[in-house]
Design goal:
- The structure is a single chain.
- With about 350 residues, the chain is an alpha/beta fold.
- The chain has two domains: about 200 residues, NAD(P)-binding Rossmann-like Domain (Rossmann fold, 3-Layer(aba) Sandwich), CATH 3.40.50.720; about 120 residues, Alpha-Beta Complex (UDP-galactose 4-epimerase, domain 1).
- It has ten helices and 14 strands.
- The strands form four sheets. A seven-stranded parallel beta sheet has the order 3-2-1-4-5-6-11, sandwiched between helices.
- Helix 7 packs across helix 9.
- It is globular, with a radius of gyration of 19 Å.
- The site of nicotinamide-adenine-dinucleotide (NAD) has 30 residues, from helix 1 and helix 3.
């Protein structure tokens, strides 16, 4: 039975691919390398470079591989940026997914494991519960919610099984350190590696940061449990902390018992006008059906990430030449390319 992992050169997708290989499955991975890296690809013979926005090429590959299970992780996952790059957020999320799903159904797909996001809860009350009604506000959240709905709709008609996973704020080794638009932990660590301070927008916003090793085994487990079929599961840490706390923890783990140089102390700038203040999840369904229990503390997870980042060294941040839409309230670090 063939399994396909999309986004397999990306952060989470590469771990999903590796875990499936280690369990002895016949797995292939695809990615267009827009946000992923060949260094994340464990088995290069089972990797296919493919842009899922290319409908014909995607259909050709799917009719060749005929995957029975697909773990779909390929995405433009820039929630905060998606209001300024709505074309990319729609094309790389909803449209690319339909390009994949239609030939997969034609070729007898048995199960879709759709990796969605907590951003679908948008304007909902924290902690976001799996059974709450999604109220996405960002273009990213809206596209992901549409992907969830179209999965449920087509599964009902064509009879394939599905599981929807909503991870949140995942971090750890292999995350993209070159991206100035997302992954706050990666941005902060990369700046310190460069010997430069990082910027904190506001600081009172709360998130629950989730180590990759707590997320991926449960994501893969959910795919194999009959009891999870048709379900929606939040995956991530229960420990919501402020951005200020996170920044102190990164500084503590980075400098350990050395004195922090005053030029590397974080710089506070006004909160971003479009940023949600509180966003974290309840994991009731994931605990009940998958046995989800996050184990990695924020301090040990950050230490692990810093150790890895030191091994690969400081990375150059890569900005888009232009955003699709400009706005006078664009975050300072993007507008002025401060990193
Ligand atoms: N990291 C998180 O905190 C987080 C939280 C919630 C949800 N998610 C979801 O998890 C999944 C993986 O996220 P990640 O953090 O590993 O991001 P990532 O950017 O590292 O991985 C996404 C991968 O998709 C690839 N990709 C993008 N467009 C593509 C296309 N058109 N065709 C083929 N490949 C394409 C990119 O090159 C990248 O390697 C995404 O679906 C994301 O929405 C992530």
């Amino acid at each position: 039975m063939t399994i396909l992992v999309t986004g397999s050169a990306g952060f989470i997708g590469s771990y999903v691919f590796d875990l499936l290989v280690s369990e002895g499955h016949n797995v292939y991975g695809v990615d267009d390398l827009s946000g992923g890296f060949m260094r994340n690809v464990g088995d290069k013979k089972r990797f296919i470079k493919l842009d899922l926005r290319d409908r014909r090429a995607t259909a050709r590959l799917i009719s060749k591989l005929k995957p029975k299970i697909i773990f779909h992780l390929a995405a433009d996952a820039h929630e905060g940026r998606s209001q300024f790059t709505p074309l990319s957020a729609s094309d790389r999320n909803y449209s690319a997914y339909i390009n994949l799903l239609v030939p997969a159904i034609k070729n007898n797909l048995e199960k879709m494991v759709l990796v969605s996001t907590m951003s679908v809860y948008g304007a909902g009350q924290v902690p976001f519960k799996e059974r709450s009604m999604p109220m996405p506000e960002s273009v990213y959240g809206i596209s992901k919610h549409a992907m969830e709905r179209v999965t449920v709709s087509l599964a009902k008609v064509y009879g394939f099984k599905h599981v929807i996973i909503r991870p949140h704020n995942v971090y750890g080794p292999r995350q993209n350190l070159t991206d100035p638009y997302r992954n706050v932990i990666g941005i902060f660590i990369n700046q310190l590696l460069k010997g430069k301070p990082f910027y904190i927008y506001g600081g009172k916003q709360k998130r629950a940061y989730s180590h990759i090793d707590d997320v991926v085994p449960h994501l893969v487990k959910a795919a194999y449990l009959h009891s999870c079929e048709g379900g929606v599961f939040n995956l991530g840490s229960d420990e919501a902390v402020t951005l200020d706390f996170l920044s102190e923890e990164i500084i503590r783990q980075f400098f350990y018992d050395e004195k922090v140089p005053s030029n590397l102390l974080p710089r506070h700038i006004p909160a971003r006008p479009f940023e949600v203040k509180y966003a974290y999840c309840d994991h009731r369904e994931a605990k009940k059906y998958i046995g989800f229990e996050p184990k990695i503390s924020l301090s040990s997870g950050i230490k692990d990430t810093i150790d890895w980042a030191r091994r690969i060294g400081p990375q150059k941040f890569t900005y888009l030449e232009d955003l699709e839409l400009d706005h006078h309230l664009l975050p300072e670090t993007w507008k002025k390319k401060l990193y």
